[in-house]
Specification:
332 residues, mainly alpha, ABC transporter involved in vitamin B12 uptake, BtuC, two-stranded antiparallel ribbon, globular
């Protein structure tokens, strides 16, 4: 009763859908600002680690829309990041400023998403996932083949960098905030409602006149923009690119982050991105432990809610039986 009375003012404030959306955006913005300020005041090393969260959270936002709302299992987000990262670094090395570099990264990611999506989306389910997995394996090999432009195994340096370390940190979080707010608003438009219907039932969505192929292609291209932008920001933060960074495990880590953060909650990607950044960083001296820990976290994220809900269901069933037994027993 006390808790309900305490929550009444907040419920009145956020009673309408518009107010709820506004309150959610304010809360997310405040939380993101707090995280950014904490990272900025934690010294150079921890600022660098926290700064890595923003690019990964941005690519996870795109995968959140793909998996949570369009029901597309994509395993090529790491490859799309590589396209944006290497493209952005190449133009930056030829004199482009930070804005031009990030715009090019986003556009290259969108173009790659469009090129991959047009044929791949003719398939569905596991077949679509297999095609994206093939892309994730192929792109790092292409980076090695085009060593004249990409640096090959030796990597590619972003020198001179268009942004300082501190500048890249704040730009990354600013763009993460823009992407997060954009996605929250997008999900509350007619397009977002249609995506929700597609996620619930493709047959019902098609019956309602929704063009499934167009919507899925738009979502995949949008996720390509975010992945390319994330790749450019990752290059700005690290200032050095290696093809091994963009292997297939990166795409799997992004998928793990989306599941950990909640597939229907855009803000959840911040938590998921933090997990896939911090665990490998703090297990760097123990080779092979990061995938094992992330695998356990993924299993727990999938299994624990089901175990919890099943326990609640069993408790409700038992309580109902006891109630029926109590009613059946005659009272003197």
């Amino acid at each position: 009763m006390i808790i309900q009375r305490a929550l009444d003012p907040w419920r009145r404030l956020t009673g309408t859908p518009g107010r709820r959306c506004g309150a959610l955006l304010v809360t997310e913005t405040a939380g993101l600002v707090v995280v950014a300020l904490m990272g900025a005041g934690s010294g150079d090393y921890y600022r660098y680690i926290v700064g890595l969260v923003a690019p990964y959270a941005i690519v996870c936002l795109g995968n959140n829309l793909l998996l949570g709302h369009a029901r597309l299992l994509s395993l090529c987000q790491g490859a799309l990041m590589a396209v944006g990262a290497y493209g952005g670094v190449v133009v930056a090395r030829h004199g482009a400023n930070a804005i031009e570099m990030l715009v090019v990264s986003g556009l290259l990611g969108a173009a790659a998403g469009l090129v991959i999506g047009v044929p791949a989306l003719r398939l569905s389910g596991h077949f679509f996932a297999a095609v994206t997995l093939l892309v994730a394996v192929t792109v790092p090999e292409l980076v090695l083949i085009t060593a004249r432009f990409s640096g090959g195994e030796n990597g590619l340096s972003l020198s001179p960098s268009p942004l300082s370390d501190v500048g890249g940190y704040w730009v990354s979080f600013a763009l993460l905030l823009v992407a997060l707010v954009t996605q929250e608003l997008l999900l509350r438009t007619r397009f977002g409602t249609e995506l929700h219907l597609i996620a619930e039932s493709e047959r019902a969505a098609a019956t309602a006149g929704i063009n499934l192929a167009r919507h899925k292609l738009l979502v995949f291209t949008y996720s390509g923009i975010l992945a390319g932008l994330a790749g450019g920001l990752l290059a700005v933060v690290t200032q050095y690119l290696l093809p091994s960074v963009f292997n297939v495990f990166l795409s799997i880590y992004v998928l793990v982050a989306v599941v950990l953060g909640g597939m229907n909650r855009p803000i959840g990607v911040l938590f998921g991105a933090a997990v896939i950044v911090f665990i490998p960083q703090f297990t760097v001296d123990s080779a092979g432990q990061a995938p094992f820990i992330l695998g356990l976290a993924l299993i727990g994220a999938i299994a624990l809610p089901r175990i919890w809900s099943e326990g609640l269901r069993l408790r409700a069933v038992r309580a109902g039986r006891r109630h029926l037994v109590a009613q059946a027993v005659p009272h003197d």
